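CHAIN AND CONFORMATION:

***
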Amino acid sequence: MADKSFSENPHSANFRNVSGKAKTTTMKRTNIILTIISLLTISSCSTEISIEKYIDLNSTLTLTINKTNDQTGLTESETRKIEPNSEKFKKLIDWANNNLDNWKSTPASYITKVAVTQNNFRLLYNQDFVVIGFTDNDGKAQQYSKTVEKGELDFLTGVSWATFRDTVNVGFVMTFKYPDNLVAESIENGRCVGEPIKPEVLDGSVTNSMRWCIWMNDTTESAPIDSLISEQRYFFKGQIKEQRENIIINNENAIRVTFKSNNQNDPYRQMIYFKKYSTLFEIINNFGTDKDFETFYNSLTIDETKKPSH
């Protein structure tokens, strides 16, 4: 009887119902927690990625550097080329090979200061993290991020120097160094370095902005140095302050002349003059005071062509 009365006790039936609901609720909570843990585990999984699979090692990379103009506060972009055989290209590939793992998938959008691109590949760098995007073998867009040491890829924005070498037909060999994001070429009786431009911008033959130029003239035909200096004054409209100083270029005595104008719209000019091998050399800096210009002209070497021995 006791057993029967217990089974028919309404309080006992309610207890069984409550107990069943509690178990069901507990199971649901457990499933939700397990699902969340699973999702977090999937999202935090790292992937091994070889960047070499997604770029052409024989093609140029485009480097874009975003900077804030101190005067206007606006963002300005500078574009450079990273050539396949350059030191910067090799450094980037070495870095990629040493950073194959710990890449994590990310759907976010990023604004960075430095971007390296080639076709469907992009690498974004912002001091302490890197983001890469590419199209995989199935044609799907992928994006991954990775934390790096601060400044680890700063070499991308640093200036590397290339060497220009040319045999001049008057009997000597000229060499100098220039930033590898610029172009060096022969232009008439000069050798000029500048930003790459489309040939049609000027006369169809010049492919750089002629930031720095080395002009050469026979000393017997060239105008006096003072006359050449005076010619540079025609570019100015304001009052000019002229500064002259003696320097050494390639073991030769030279004179450096700097023009500064009180008119903000006037150009900047710095000229260097010296003579060697019956040639008058005129080196002109057309664009603002630049520490790199000093490195450029100090790297200049001019050596007489050796005649073959008989």
Remarks:
- The chain has five helices and 17 strands.
- Confidence is low (pLDDT under 50) at residues 1-19, 33-44.
- The longest strand covers residues 240-249.
